[in-house]
Amino acid sequence: MSIIELIQDGVIKAVKSLYGADISPADITMNSTRKEFEGDYTVVTFPFTRIARKKPDEIAEEMGQFLVREVTHIQQYNVIKGFLNLSVSDSFWRQFLEEIHHNEQFGRQPANGQKVLVEFSSPNTNKPLHLGHIRNILLGWSASQILEAAGYEVVKVQIVNDRGIAICKSMLAWEKYANGATPASTGIKSDHFVGDYYVLFEQKFQEEYKHWQHTEKAQALLAGWLASKEALKAEKELAQKRAKDQKELDAKIAAGTLPDDSTLQDEDYSLGKYFFKGFKDEYFNQYSTLGAEARTMLLRWEEGDEPTIALWRRMNDWVYEGFNETYEKLGVHFDKLYFESNTYLLGKDMVEKGLAERVFYRKDDGSVWADLTDAKLDHKAVMRSDGTSLYITQDLGTAHLRYEDFGVEKMVYVVADEQNYHFQVLFEILKRLKEPYANGLHHLAYGMVDLPTGKMKSREGTVVDADDLIAEVVEEARKNSQERDTLSGISAEEQNAIVNQIALAALKFFIIKVYPQKRMTFDPKESVDLQGQTGPYVQNAYVRVRSVLRKGGELDLSPATAYEKLEAQEREMLAQLYAFPELVQTAAGDYDPSAIANFCYDLAKAYHRFYHDYSILNADTEAAKAFRLQLSRAVANVLKLGMSLLGIEMPERM
Q: Judging by beta carbons within 10 Å of its beta carbon (0-12, 13-18, 19+), is residue 249 exposed, middle or buried?
């Protein structure tokens, strides 16, 4: 029984003995004691006032006396405004440390016999991975590692979006403008090479669209729209936007961040620009020559046209080669890849099953729908009137296929929070279809990633590529190391390896430490700061511990059991270490890698402070020296394991 369970059991007995009432562990609120108070664990007594009919302070006093008397290892207590602070005995902490200090896998749980599938990354094959993908990949990988540490068998998969009009845009641009160029002939990384043609298509399309806007047909459409109620509404919107923008501009001029003669451009607020911005998709589908060519290419692909399929395979292979290089940089791999080109027809049999079981209904036009209004969702189409499938149809079929492939109890989808509603619908339908895994579905949603300069953009070639971002963080880490001059005396190869470890720790930790559903700003320079809440800060604590352990490597640690009076900071770190296995379980259950990242930071911070305040190798007694070396070893082991769950390696020096 853990110390927490012992305390809970003691509180249950105390309430029964003192007040004659029965309670359960769920009725007990217990936390780690705040640093400004003495103690290890705090029991909140306010919930017991109805039972005891006494003030919280009185309850805490009576309960504290009972627990010290009846519960092994509760050494003393104090009461602060109704909060009962309990101190665990030094002997308990000594015994705990003796048991775990040599265990490099402390915190990892035995296999629980359950299997979970985690889907993450899932990029399109028309461009390289970008900053948003990095957050997705790092969350998916770390969630997978944490689930494994919690005892699950984990299957890591991605579905590659390798078909559709966006893919055909890259193919068409290469066919029209590449003159046979390849990644090898240009020296461009292969996924960037394909992405360049996607950007080129957009540039050519914008040129075509801009030219068309001056044609008689375009002007006639604009004139018709200007006479509509929608145009009046747009005019009001533009006036409001201009007033807001003018206010912001005036503030920047007053602050001196913009020149005094800065002005807004009239064209940006014109009704014509507003109309054509909103008309772009319709133009692509109805009037664009390039749009027609891209749609024709997609039709040829769907018909199995051999030259089109050959080009599609060739360009996709280039992209996969580039993706794999990026995944390798990040230390990520997958157990299975699913391809949309193989799965987009799946799910139709599930629609038929749903119709037979009255989960779905058919409209007069032949389309098939699910009525989810009783679950506070809408009616959802699951098949078009012409019998073709929708994204939701494919997702239904893919989920079932994965269950057939792996027999998993749980499936986790790491997808941006823009898709929250989609997954609510998908999961509700799978439950109604009585799929055996339906109660184990989870959407690990995450927020947008910004840079200090603003929100990422896509399509226009201004997207922040993952490779470029990794390179920038590596450069920041290199500059930081050179300024500190801590890597002199080792080979250039070793220096590069350490700099890469630091850079990847900076990137991964900075992103993972933020609760997934929060929007975040990634600052490359801040991420490598050795003094902030960063990966390099935690690595530095580990390097410091390892240095201490190397220097004390030959010392006898057996006197540690004779260490009598633990310092408050030692108790704090021991309590942190003690909480680690349960934290792994909680982080796995909550699908929250940020909990592990913040734990590692707090433990590193506690060790840095302890190292500064107390002598380890020159402690006053042999017992203190041995105990602190044991404690240092335990901290090193947990930091290394904890950071490995985030995909972060720990260097021996930095």
A: middle
